[in-house]
User: Fold this.
Amino acid sequence: MPGEKIHGELYPVLLMDEADYVRIRTTVPGCRVTAGAVYKLYRNYNHPQLFVQGEVYVLDDDFRENYAVLLVCGATFYRLQQPSIS
Assistant:
């Protein structure tokens, strides 16, 4: 399962812009991701006028860039370092 080695090092965050990883809670047919799996978030910076922090996508189970998964599937965002408490 993707991301299995880092489960103990992940901290939940509320904002996708702060996240490094995502856990898929629910899926829809045709989305090509596994419910309960953790995926690394990647960012595409080709359109900075639309996506200041980069357009976010995951590599799905077929190892293809999947931009829609975060729009149609339930997800929880995580980062590797503990968020600072201010």
User: Anything to note?
Assistant: The beta strands are 11-13, 21-26, 38-44, 55-59, 65-66, 74-79. The longest helix spans residues 69-72. The first strand starts at residue 11 and ends at 13. The chain has a mean pLDDT of 84.
